[in-house]
Amino acid sequence: MHQKRRSNAFPFVQVRTDSRWVTFPAAVPSRRSSEDSLSGVPRTGDQPLVEGLRHGQPSYHRASLALLFAGLASFNAMYCTQALMPELSTDLHASPAQSALTVSATTGILALAILPASILSERLGRGRVIVFSALAATIVGQLLAFAPSLGWLVAGRGLQGLLLSGVPATAMAWLAQEIHPKDLPRAMGLYVAGNSVGGLIGRLLPSGVLQFAGWRTALNVDMALALTFSIVLAVILPKERRFRPKALHLRSEIATMVRQWRDPRLAGLFGVGFIFMGVFVSLYNFLGYRLTGRFGMPPSLAGLVFLLYLFGTLASARGGRMAAQRGRGVAILVGTVLCVVGLPVAASGSLWMMLPGVAAFTYGFFTVHAVASGWVGALAPTSRGEASGMYLTCYYLGSSILGYLSGHVFHAAGWTALMMWLLGLVLVGCALAGIVARSARRLATA
């Protein structure tokens, strides 16, 4: 394993695994740090800091499990209403677009709050931000089931998004700060697994409860589990040993972000993240309406469609390997082609045609995201933190904005029109990906 770091206000660490570089947010205790070796004991001035946690130590296992529960809690809460949208429309007399606001409000506010949460954690401590974020968001989640109207529910979900932002903004940085570099990939993998499983639970559990009770009970049950995850996180998360508050240089960070938007390759990848995440969330937002309406499935059975997310787990790993072997340009274009092929098939009136189309799109989307997110860091070697943060902001803004707009298309013109709308967006995303790939190839041969 090879490892390299840089120090800035949003430090990141790159770890070489599975023949590819994986970029994680890192924490550098001070801008004066002069030693970043594999010993895991950076030196500030004349005083060495304590060594990072090593695999086999009790605190290491507590830290890894704590961040696993952070992922389970936060991503469960983030998507807890997606599988409930058809029931929300029926019970609250809301259109699909209005019901989609229960997802869009969360991801939109979260997108805007990620960078401020990162900055705040540099002063207050990442552990405090993670614990407060998870506990506060899941406590608010317990109150959502008592919302008297859709407006109150959407407002509560927006508040959840604001509170949740502290986890994705700081969790990986906490791990990179506290864990020894040699043992970081193992701990990071557990956190990423928690994100994936948490998101899946947040969709499957509420839809399963709908078989026995209404959406309010389903939401309460799911949020009770998420709150339990948060409490476990708060109890077992070790105290930070290597954190030191940092001076913030907001003006220089803003200047760096402006420069990144002037780079057509980075701007193109930000657009790719915005479009493809927006299309992905739109597809799954309204898939439940199609299954319960056209095919007459009960909500509990329709919720099982979220198991198709498992194709994404496979695609993320294979997409990284393809990028390493064939190049990022080839890998991202393969992903976009799968998305283009999958959407027309998903428009089919046959269930047995539609589901493979959704699966193909899901595989393609996760391939695109895996490649694009890594490519952003590679294109900004001196400002990976800012670039990755901006990509994540655009990614969640796409979920919020396009997820809401797609609801109006579906409500006005139906499923086939929605698929054509999403296909048009994907073609724009393909064009952006092609421009980025061509630009990168031209610079490589210049």
TrEMBL record:
User: What Pfam families has UniProt attached to this entry?
Assistant: MFS_1
Q: Which PANTHER family match?
A: BLL2771 PROTEIN, INNER MEMBRANE TRANSPORT PROTEIN YNFM
Stated family: Belongs to the major facilitator superfamily.
This protein's UniProt keywords = Cell membrane, Membrane, Transmembrane, Transmembrane helix, Transport
State the organism named in the record: Acidipropionibacterium jensenii
| Localization per record | Cell membrane
What's the domain of life for this entry?
A: Bacteria
Gene3D superfamilies per the UniProt record, alphabetical:
MFS general substrate transporter like domains
InterPro entries for the chain: MFS (IPR011701), MFS_dom (IPR020846), MFS_trans_sf (IPR036259)
- What GO terms fall under cellular component here? plasma membrane
This one is known as Inner membrane transport protein ynfM
Provide a Gene Ontology MF annotation, just one.
Answer: transmembrane transporter activity
Chief subcellular location: membrane
